[in-house]
Fold this sequence. Notes:
Number of strands: 15
Strand order of the largest sheet: 3-4-2-1-5-6
InterPro entries: Phosphoglycerate_kinase, Phosphoglycerate_kinase_CS, Phosphoglycerate_kinase_N, Phosphoglycerate_kinase_sf
Bound molecules: adenosine-5'-triphosphate, 3-phosphoglyceric acid
Catalytic activity: (2R)-3-phosphoglycerate + ATP = (2R)-3-phospho-glyceroyl phosphate + ADP
Largest sheet: 6 strands, parallel
Distance between the termini: 44 Å
Organism: Paspalum notatum var. saurae
CATH architecture of the largest domain: 3-Layer(aba) Sandwich
Family: Belongs to the phosphoglycerate kinase family.
Subunit structure: Monomer.
Amino acid sequence: MSMASVLAPATLSLARPAARRAAVASAAAAATLRRAGLDAACPSARSLGSASLGAGADPRLAIRVASRCRSESAAGRGARAAATMAKKSVGDLAAADLEGKRVLLRADLNVPLDDSQNIADDTRVRAAIPTIRHLIDKGARVILCSHLGRPKGVTPKFSLAPIVPRLSELLGMQVQKANDVIGPEVEKLVSALPNGSVLLLENVRFYKEEEKNDPEFAKKLASLADLYVNDAFGTAHRAHASTEGVTKFLKPSVAGFLLQKELDYLVGAVSNPKRPFAAIVGGSKVSSKIGVIESLLERCDILLLGGGMIFTFYKAQGLSVGASLVEDDKLKLATSLLAKAKEKGVSLMLPTDVVIADKFAPDASSQVVPASAIPDGWMGLDIGPDSISAFSSALETTQTVIWNGPMGVFEFDKFAVGTEAIAKKLAELSDRGVTTIIGGGDSVAAVEKVGVADCMNHISTGGGASLELLEGKELPGVVALDET
Ligand SMILES: Nc1ncnc2c1ncn2[C@@H]1O[C@H](COP(=O)(O)OP(=O)(O)OP(=O)(O)O)[C@@H](O)[C@H]1O
Ligand SMILES: O=C(O)[C@H](O)COP(=O)(O)O
């Protein structure tokens, strides 16, 4: 345990207003766009990232999902999550099941667009390709469907039209686009769709019935197709018409390769890890990570905490945290999580030093101080060099590492050092055979910013979905699929 001294409790707290969050988010997007020199950072890239996943084939995943489920259930842990796992895959379908068949394929093409409607990060489009290509190669007629953003009714700026050029480029064929999701025009386009081609439907959320999981809407959508493939991992935690409702009207309803790979890693590798197994949890608030921390405490050997949440733990231990982000209503929770780690024999490490700033800004004045010496008015925005070194040494001992949430305000270069060091460490470990999993959200943006995304074994394409899986929750979009 890292914390030694106990000082008088502080009372200041720092909420992160929406505008500030928007500013850091756009800084992150800009940083992603600036990404350069990726491969140099990762000499022996494993090509196992979602972007480079071969059609259904992850050669190192010799153990099938179903068998993982059985061993997990036998161990008496994670039975609920395991129940979501033994799902039929598109790879299990014979050529005759697909040739000439109309396949409704739900993907998550919810990508960030810039002000000129250009794709700012095409990761999710690239991640959707293996399943689409497999279906094309088998002569299926692919009816591709996705949401984009959270539109209220038909909203042109949320059209899926900007996705078509990139999708066509990646597939090496022209993808057609419908201007609607259901209805006679779409039916006409589907009837004329040749074998081995793709029709992209308009944003499924242009219909309010989608998010309401309206059975009539689901039925109409399903009536376009003969069978259903769900590859939208990022939306699998939503029980919507296109992710859950349609499965009641289409048989078979199976998992796509991306969905399968996400489950393999986020449930399979986490519930049955090569040990020692370390979890790194960061991000802004402890309140949004309680479920994940509690769930990981049941499974991991080492838990490293960073990001804004550490100040709630410090304060719970009686330290002054200055103007750092603190959730005063979670102090007891922090104390109980520390106690739980002790009880479970998990080596929980908090940073011993922090980089503090005089304001929340990229050009703030900064200094490194021990975690026990944060002055009034200053806020911790990154982990310090001693912590980086201690965390790196702890990670040296591991065989499996999962990471969710940045170590600091990585959107500001000055406070990105801790996050970048952890990203580089994971890339190095990955190269040595350690299984490295990036559990979605901002940690993905962080490894992309550092240029080591391709080094990791798995980078999740789902933020909310991966968090829910790591919490041990069932995902409705997975539960609804056919069993193996
Ligand atoms: N010390 C800190 N003080 C304030 N904010 C911080 C601090 N450290 C990290 N953050 C912020 O936490 C945010 C990410 O937190 P979040 O909990 O959302 O992580 P995530 O789970 O990776 O992302 P997502 O919510 O997209 O899934 C980043 O924007 C980062 O700037
Ligand atoms: O970006 C995501 O997390 C998914 O596409 C789901 O989007 P939603 O949170 O709007 O349902």
